[in-house]
Amino acid sequence: MNQYIKKTLGYLVPVFALGCFMLIIHGAYVPHKSAEIQRVVCIKFKPGVTAQDLEQHFSEFATMKNKIKDVVAYSAGKVQASEAGKSYDVVHYLTFRTVESADEYVQHASRKEFIDRNHDKWSEVLELNSNIEKK
Question: Where would I find the Stress-response A/B barrel domain in this sequence (predicted)?
Answer without folding.
Answer: 37-130
